[in-house]
Design goal:
This protein has one domain: NADP-dependent oxidoreductase domain (TIM Barrel, Alpha-Beta Barrel), CATH 3.20.20. The relative contact order is 0.14. The chain has an 8-stranded parallel sheet with strand order 3-4-5-6-9-10-11-12. Strands 1-2 form a two-stranded antiparallel ribbon. Strands 7-8 form a two-stranded parallel ribbon. Helix 2 crosses helix 3. It is built from 12 helices and 12 strands.
Length: 332
């Protein structure tokens, strides 16, 4: 398993991380034996970053990951979790963040996590469950810094969803060590300029901002919530089709455009659309570690096999760019 430098942290993370989220659902609703089998397989393959959150199954993901790590006792693995602050937490963000992290540590059975991420979208004005850049820098950063000083977390992070300009502002501040960035074949704008009138949020080359600031990148929505599998059917323990982030305004539109990228498979660049999507995410040097939502141990094995094939070749990336130009002008 390739290890990549993770920003300025000094960590070397496996390029494939282990996502414990609710979209795939394995670590939330899966069979305990399947959960342990998948984590053990990941550890054996030298995957060393495990990503969870209290919001994943109201703590179930953290409980299950903690149970398995206590059983397996793997050496040299890193764990990240998250807090989503509620509208009523205004004025007591420090207490809310501390209480959330204490609960996460108890469920995980850890004294500290390696990365503690803010899970709220960051928007221009804040409100309705989002935070403005000013709130993040003035209120969240001091609260998170205290938790780091107390030894509860080693590094601080954000989930980089919301409005592009405030996301850039927060990353540029260098207050955070990690950013979870949307990057996939439907929306590559964290890395490159989009064609004119392209139906997706323009993330304004967030990778450039992260690299300049020394912020490590965790790739999220690599499969666009499952749309880049190309299949409408979802596993019984997976969540219903999630609200798209950064791409189309509906999951069906994401799925339709994903299927129009099947030429990559027909041209022999990958054995499946999901493989192509995974290898695409590897192809950018700014990517520190990427997360794939999984419902079964086999889906983890598939992601691992894709990663072991390495990044897509340039000719495949050029073909993908040609295909995406066909989306321009379509309604988002």
């Amino acid at each position: 398993m390739q290890l990549r430098n993770f920003g300025r942290t000094g960590l070397k993370l496996s390029v494939l991380g282990f996502g414990c989220g609710a979209v795939g659902g394995l670590m939330v609703r899966g069979d305990p034996a399947d959960q342990e089998r998948a984590v053990a397989r990941a550890v054996d393959a030298s995957v060393n970053y495990f990503d969870t959150a209290v919001q994943y199954g109201n703590g179930e993901s953290e409980k299950n990951l903690g149970r398995i790590l206590r059983n397996l006792k793997p050496a040299n693995v890193f764990v990240g979790t998250k807090v989503r602050l509620l509208p009523g937490d205004d004025g007591c963000i420090g207490n809310a963040a501390a209480a959330s992290l204490e609960g996460s540590l108890a469920r995980l059975g850890l004294d500290r996590v390696d990365i503690f991420h803010l899970h709220n979208p960051i928007t221009a004005t804040g409100g309705e469950g989002t935070l403005s850049a000013r709130q993040v820098l003035d209120d969240v950063v001091p609260a998170f810094t205290r938790l780091r000083e107390q030894g509860k977390t080693r590094f601080l992070g954000i989930t980089a969803v919301g409005d592009t300009a405030p996301l850039q502002q927060v990353i540029d501040s260098r207050a955070f060590d990690s950013a979870q960035v949307v990057y996939n074949m439907l929306n590559p704008s964290a890395a490159e300029d989009l064609p004119a009138n392209y139906p997706a949020q323009d993330y304004g080359r967030l990778f450039d901002h992260a690299t300049t600031a020394g912020v490590g990148v965790v790739g999220i929505r690599v499969l666009a919530g499952g749309a880049l599998s190309g299949a409408a059917e979802r596993h019984p323990i997976a969540s219903p089709a999630p609200e798209p982030i950064g791409s189309a305004m509906s999951y069906d539109a994401d799925l339709d455009r994903a299927r129009r990228l099947m030429a990559l498979v027909k041209d022999g660049f990958a054995a499946s659309l999901a493989e192509a999507a995974t290898r695409f995410a590897l192809s950018h040097a700014a990517m520190g570690t990427l997360l794939i939502g999984i419902a079964t141990p086999q889906q983890f094995d598939d992601a691992l096999a894709a990663v072991e094939k390495g990044p897509l070749p340039k000719v495949a990336l050029d073909r993908l760019s040609e295909l995406r130009h066909g989306f321009s002008g379509e309604p988002r």
